[in-house]
Amino acid sequence: MKKLLASLALVSALSTSFINRENFETKTIENKAVSEVKSISEIKENAVSSAEIFSTIDFSGINQLNPEVFEKAYKGFQKLKAAGKLPEESQILSIVDFSLSSNTKRLWIIDLNSKKVLFNSLVAHGKNTGDEFATNFSNNRNSLQSSLGFYVTDDTYFGGNGYSLRLHGMDRGWNDAALERAVVMHGAKYVSEQFAAQHKRIGRSWGCPAVPSELAQQIIDTVKGKQCLFLYYPDQNYLSSSEWLL
Fold first, then answer.
1. Is residue 165 included in any domain, yes or no?
2. How confident is the model over 180-203, as pLDDT tens digits?
3. pLDDT by residue (tens digit) across 7-33?
4. Cβ neighbour number for residue 88 with a 10 Å cutoff
5. Dihedral sign, Cα of residue 20, residue 22, residue 23, residue 24
6. What is the number of domains present in the chain?
7. Domain of 87: which CATH number?
């Protein structure tokens, strides 16, 4: 009798275990499906909101930013917020389009709250990144090249280039050596239309996104303190591997 009861208890336990496991697996599959649907929904929502936001930004009287570049910048901006890399109240998005000539104003600093472009300015690339056009990028020390990707701005300091802004590279392998390389935002006299007129291009930095000296303090004070900076170039290796664009 005892053996019979023990056998029945074992069968009951195994049945319950199987049912619980089946329920767990079913719930796991359901949760995964819901998660995937949410993910697709969020991507669609971000794409729509990005287009809507871009359409409301006033570019009158300044260079027009490529909407595809803005879409990528905004997507990364949102993902950085979701990952806790940017504070929720952060609303300044700075974008550099390195596919453009260095003689054009290819830096846009946008207030996403007011939908206004606060600055549209010249910006330098690294000495070994190219002449008038940027073509080569590196994350290596002493490369004197610019580094692509997303940055989070930090604090300011006075250094060899005057008032400067520290930058934290957020793309592993692409720009995460920025602090070690002393890649910062600073002003430079060689970033000017006068210099470009004389040399057929503006001057180049050692990898820093240098801005016109007369605008440096205003620009730096606007973008400092946990704001997003995106340095864009149509490098397919970068665009297909950045965790902030996937």
1. yes
2. 999 999 999 999 999 999 999 999
3. 444 445 444 444 444 444 444 444 444
4. 8
5. positive
6. 1
7. 2.40.440.10
